[in-house]
Amino acid sequence: MGYVLAVPRNQRIPTMVGNSRPDVLAANAPALAWKRRSCGNGAKGPRLYDWAVASLPNTDDGYGHWLLNCRSITDPTDLTYYLCFGLAGTPDEDPIRIAGTRWAIEECFQTAKTEVGLDHYQVRRYDAWYRHITLDMFRRQPA
Question: With contact defined as beta carbons under 8 Å apart, do 53 and 90 qualify?
Answer without folding.
Answer: no
